[in-house]
Amino acid sequence: MTIAAKIADFTLKTSYDTVPYNVKELAKKALIDYIAVTNIGSKEKSAEIMKRYVFGKPQNDECKAIGTDGYYNMEDAALMNGYFAHLLDYDDVGLAGHPSAVLLSTCFAMGEAMEISGKKLMAAYIIGYEVSLKLAEALMPELTEKGWHGTPIFGTIGAAVCAGKIMKLSKENLIDAIGIAASMASGIMENFGTHTKPFHAGMAASNGIKAVKLAKEGLKASPIAIEGECGYARLFAHKKIKKNDVRIGECWELFLQDLMLKKYPCCSAAHTAINGIEELIEDNNIDYKNIKKIVVSVPKFTLLNLIYEAPKTPEQARFSMQYALACVLVTN
């Protein structure tokens, strides 16, 4: 059995009723968080970039996008949803990057267009999250050490799984959709601190739907697109993996331990240091005017994310340890 076939089997056999209660409760919290951050993001000035792009295209009135008027095709609604959700970097985060911004954007667009129930929407989201996370477990940290952004790399596959579940694809079609999505996955970390980072989330959501639509029409893909010699795992993480390396369907613990709702609207790589500064201020009544220097020890992964020492824009500031800590000190 290939990895895509294993993912397809898990997707098709799993329903809302078979998902553990505590997983569903966490997913509900993520859903509420997603709606909030997406709605806020849709009001940002830079949200107008994506609106202008989509509004200028012919539409077929399938569904709405959060925070907008009118109806759009599924791919464009998912594109806007994902961009808005990730725009402030306030959306939830985990090993697979920012899964909810991608997956719920897919589910909301396709779910409305296909008039599915809330339970079916949540089941598709949870399954897509689990697939994204298990792929991340197999390919991290190597993937991000190569400079790839996990959110669209894992999210495109996860979005195809969500869309395939909602569209009720056959196993054969879903395997093809996963293979198609593997070729559409992309996103470089060098674009952190620009408008293109949140575009990664919208792009992945939109591409997941596109992959499923193409597979349903008969577009074929390699059944070993994930583990093949020139496939997804080898090219993104320089790793050769087998079916058993992707532990999909074996447990739900990673989902329960992984998803983190954000307290601060900035890259999560800075959050531990922010918490530390807040505790020091509270315990020692620190006045920032008396501080000469701050030294923060971080792992290599943090350095790959927080790349701006002296940010010039709000987008860059979200990826600056220096800016984050300065904000906390000055405003407390």
Key terms for this structure?
332 residues, single chain
Question: What structural class do helix, strand and pairing data support?
Answer: mainly alpha
Shape: globular
State the distance separating the first and last CA atoms.
56 Å
Alpha plus pi helix count: 16
- The percentage of residues in β strands lies in under 5%
Biggest sheet details: none
H/E element sequence: HHHHHHHHHHHHHHHH
The radius of gyration is 20 Å
Counting DSSP E segments of at least 2 residues, the number of strands comes to 0
Low-pLDDT segments, ≥5 res: none
**Which range best describes the helical content: under 10%, 10-25%, 25-40%, 40-55%, 55-70% or over 70%?**
55-70%
Oligomeric nature of the chains? single chain
Give the averaged pLDDT, no decimals. Answer: 94
Present the secondary structure layout:
Layout: H1 3-13, H2 21-42, H3 47-55, H4 74-86, H5 99-113, H6 118-139, H7 142-145, H8 150-167, H9 171-184, H10 196-216, H11 232-237, H12 253-258, H13 271-284, H14 300-305, H15 314-317, H16 321-331
Offer a quick outline of the entry.
This protein is mainly alpha-helical and 332 residues long. Helix content is 59%, strand content 0%.
Characterise this structure.
There is one protein chain. The chain is mainly alpha-helical. Helix content is 59%, strand content 0%. The protein has 16 helices and no strands. Helix 4 runs antiparallel to helix 10 and helix 5 packs across helix 10. The relative contact order is 0.14.
